[in-house]
């Protein structure tokens, strides 16, 4: 009785992510702005409809392979933190810090900015149609939505998870409103847009890595439960089950959605559209013209919510492992949320929303993201041979992590040829972490700075009402 009471009063991240909430987190993170933005990017870089549909399916299968690899890693490594903790435990502290550095200063701000801008664009669409919404208004609404999600994640884990459940239902409803009219028209014989689906006139094989990035952006989110591994209920069972069901559901939904798009819209229509889902509704189902943008905006909101919820755990775990300032491994004494880690995401995302271009941002952060995901699955292969004695509640065939790693690293290498400027920026961002690691992480803080650093940490700790985790959860 006394022990139960003590645990109830202790400050730590509790296991509140059930199987349903894990499924909602995954679906809610995958089905976001990607399926409503990326059709244009995939078609542009693949060259024709037929190849673009193959790219969509291949990206889905590749995402399933990656998700299965991460499900095995999640049963072998019991800590939260996703990519970061898997690279740290399998490849060591330097590559894990380079990931953390690139993730905080490039990958996550760019990703969140893309989704926030899509949220702002779609939620304003009905008010300015048929004209485009003013860019300053889009950015203002994007920032407002992002700040609301930050506040929610700082306030309550339970309410964040409940909202994600509701938004996941809305996301699937939005896809249904696109799939059903498209399938009805296809059944009626409207196949004219597929006559030259594999036309070679505009095929550009050198741009396929960029089509891959755009497609994988739409599926990104299959790894989200790995970031909250310590908060999952029965993770050995629920994590693999949630991953498999959610990814297969999204693959089927995405393929049907793209077929519906191409049934109604020509390739030229898709490439000319600023909001593919809205253009679809204008041609296929006029009554949904004002509804679709709101549903899409809510989908983007759910993706923002899931992204902030999980990435704050990366900063939390990195701080706990000694590679990030100690303040960010602290939890609010009443709310039991990683408040400092959540708040740290505010400045860079705000800056990227204000200055970023949405399509170039995709290439900017995709290079770094897929480089480190490939390294994490490479780490799985290495970890298997280094620690054959570890229990394996869930194991995938060896060809899955090998093929996933090779494809990821090959696409990363090819992207230097496809978009050298932005990929070089992403590479420079990763490499800039080297001097920081050797100057600030691998050696102790100088005595002249330690007192001031600890004093500032203490004052911020008092101000934010946060303390270190009192119960070990891994």
Describe, in short, the structure shown:
With 474 residues, this protein is an all-alpha fold.
Q: What is the N-to-C order of secondary-structure elements (H for helix, E for strand)? A: HHHHHHHHHHHHHEHHHHHHHE
Strand content: under 5%
N-to-C span = 23 Å
How would the global form be characterised? globular
Given as residue ranges, the uncertain stretches (5+ residues, pLDDT < 50) are: none
Mean of residue pLDDT?
A: 84
Q: Approximately how much helix is present in the residues?
A: over 70%
Provide a count of the helices.
20
- Spatial strand order of the main sheet: 1-2
Please compute the radius of gyration using only Cα atoms: 22 Å
**What's the main sheet like?**
2 strands, antiparallel
Structural class: mainly alpha
Strand tally is: 2
Structural description of this entry:
- With 474 residues, the chain is mainly α.
- 73% of the residues lie in helices and 1% in strands.
- It has helices spanning 2-9, 19-30, 34-46, 49-76, 83-91, 93-128, 135-155, 157-187, 208-219, 235-264, 267-272, 276-284, 291-320, 339-343, 346-355, 358-386, 399-418, 420-431, 433-441, 447-464; strands at 330-332, 466-468.
- The chain has a two-stranded antiparallel sheet with strand order 1-2.
- Helix 8 packs across helix 13.
- The chain is globular.
- The model has no long low-confidence stretch (mean pLDDT 84).
